[in-house]
Each structure stands twice: as structure tokens, then as C-alpha cells.
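seq:
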Amino acid sequence: MDKSITDHFSDCGDDEVEVNCSLEKNQFILYRGDKGRMIPLKRPVFCPIKHLSVTEAAAIPLDIQQRGIDVGVAIILQTTNQRVLLTRRAKELRIFPSVWVPPGGHLEPDETLLDAGLRELKEETGLELEAEEVSPKILGLWESSYPPMLSRGLPQRHHIVIYMLLHSSLSHLQLQASLSPSPAEVSACLWADRQLVRAIVSAVDGEDAELQLDDLPSSISVTQVSTGGALSDSTLPLTVFISRAPSSGPDVERVSTGTKYALELWLKSLETPGL
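struct:
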């Protein structure tokens, strides 16, 4: 855990590089080659593994050092009317509680990336999509650590998250009718339109850049999920979705840094659909 994956492919310590990837014999392989489509791999500027000192790296417990790197698949589900599904992680979860992310989870043995994404989508939201109908495309890869900053403690988990775009032929209202989130994992859902996504993406973590609010309303419609799984219409302040990751003190309800990266790639995919 003392070495950032992004550093393996960067000559100058860049936070974003381009790689190829494949899944072979239950191993997710990253490499640099001249064949196949190159995919962006990015880490946050404040990536704790990037900034680990020798002393800090040595202080990481051996069981955590030997845990290795987990691989996860997160689904950017695009509706026919160009909205994407975001879910709020249950507050009881050990990693990133109450943070907004796309549906997703770990890759299981003998699964394809698409199989893993479709399974996690169904387990977390109740939405069941057919593999032959979704036109899957990997948008990008994200190197994630938890806690997300050294100011919050030494890294305990190290992930590569594969953000996969799936297209649904249904609108968000049609999909909403089939929504049945797992309350153990999801405490709220949101169908974000392009205008909201642009605002979310403009709130860059670790920067003070001006926000692009595009005259958005002060509150956003969401679906709350009760502990028993019942759904109810609600609203949350816009400020929740444009909150930045705090460098100290308790974390806040916000959209995860990796999700902002994936949503930015999604916006680009709408502008250049042939890529």
C-alpha cells in the first residue's frame, strides 16, 4: 500500500494517466500498450498513498499492507432522457458512509466487469437490466483510498474503481417505478440531470474553483429510503451536492471525489458520443 497505482504509469508524478486494462483469470490487469482503447486512470491530488512518508508507510499495520488492492465496478446508468442514478450510501457502512455515489461494488470471482456491475445494480437498487441491451462502455478508472486524506488517518483500504456507462431505453420516471433499494446499503436515490451534474462536477475537491450553478433551485428532489425499505419523496439542499471533501473534522454528506470524476467523463461522453 506504499505505492500508488497511478505512479506506476506516470513519469512525472501526474495524477492522471492513460492505460489499457483487461480481466484475465480473475485478475484485473492494467498495462500500457498500443492496442485497444486507452482509458483514463486518475487519483485525487490529495491521494494519501501518493503523499505517504516512509515513516507513515511503515506504520500501516501488516494485515492492511497485505490486503492488496480491491477492484470495484460502479455503474453510471444513463436514462433515455439523459439523467444518471446516484445513491447515498447508508450511514452504517464502514467506508464512505452517507456519501453519494453510483451503484456499484466489488468484483466477484469468475464475473465479467459487466456482470459485476449489473449484479450490484440489482442488489443495491432493485433495477434489473439485460446485458445485451445496455451498450456498456468503461468511462474511466479511479484510484481510491480510505480514509481519502492523510489528515483523516493512514490508509486502510485501496481500490481501483471501474466506472462503467450503461444506457437504458427507459426514462428516469419509468425506472423509478421499479426502484427497490436495499436499505442496508442505500439511504436515498437521485436522478441527476445534466444541469445538476455540471454543478456537482464544478465543486472540485481540494480546490476553491468557482461553482457553476446555472440558476439551479436551492433544493433537489430525492427519494429517501427508510430502514424498512419504504420509499418517500423528499428534498435536500443543493449545498449537499456541491459540498467539497473537508480536509479536517468530520466528513460531510457530499458526492464522492471519484464520482465527480466519473460524472465529468459522462458529460464529455454526451458532447462526443462517438468516442
